[in-house]
Amino acid sequence: MPTVLVADDQLLVRAGLCALLRMAPGVEVVGEACDGEDALRQAAATTPDVILMDIRMPGTDGIQATRRLLARPAPAPTRVIVLTTFDLDGYVYDALRAGASGFLLKETPPERLIAAIHTVAAGDMLFAPSVTRRLIEAYAPPGLPAGDLPPAWRTVTNREREVLLQVASGRTNGEIAERLVLSEATIKTHLNRVMGKLGLSSRAQAVVFAYESGLVVPGHTTAEHRDH
Fold first, then answer.
1. What residues does 6 pair with on adjacent strands?
2. Which of the four, 61, 142, 187, 188, has the lowest number of CB atoms within 10 Å?
3. 226 in Cβ contact with 147 (< 8 Å)
């Protein structure tokens, strides 16, 4: 049963989300926070599986809180779903860049919200990879010039690099497994390894890395390879 922390500065929104989730089978609400700092404090105390994080909060906003939360060591991973009133805005890109596992509009139907919590708690992407790719292409800055990849990139194996590029190109694990003639479990293993080497906390953040590093060029349907 995934545990959930709700962070939103609007009392009515926060209370409504908590009431909804407490009525849902298979979900446990472990706390509610009024801003980013409060979310960080409560996350440290309760170690929730998922945080529903509003982006626009006074003081420490949801993006800053997500970045700080996912940067600190924890016994078990906490996944972040950011909440927004606008579809595909720049704030969402910043949240994915900070390591959020996905985003939801505040008008999302209850059944989809609950399904999203279970999806993210299981470590999967909240959206179809193609949707995440379109969002990142819309807001990602130009890739780094050749030679500016981080030193950790040298520890990535050819197979891990291949899987990362396939993920960044918008393909599902099943599609990648078929293309590389591997099992989906093996694809997940390779992706988890490359994410660990590069210090990435979510699949969406891995796609952001591929675009910002110039490994994938916006508008291209295939990944562009670089040498180690």
1. 32, 52
2. 142
3. no
* Residue appearing with tokens 């599986």: 49
* Side chain identity, residue 149: L
Residues sharing a CB contact under 8 Å with residue 67, sequence separation 6 or more, in sequence order: 98, 99
pLDDT of residue 145: 65
Give 26-30 contacts, CB < 8 A, sequence gap 24+.
26/1, 26/2, 26/114, 26/118, 27/1, 27/2, 27/114, 27/117, 27/118, 28/1, 28/2, 28/3, 28/4, 29/3, 29/4, 29/5, 30/3, 30/4, 30/5
3-state secondary structure of 100: coil
pLDDT digits (tens, 9 = 90+) for 23-82: 999 999 999 999 999 999 999 999 999 999 999 999 999 999 999 998 887 777 899 999
The residue type at 47: T
The encoded tokens of residue 100 equal 């959020």
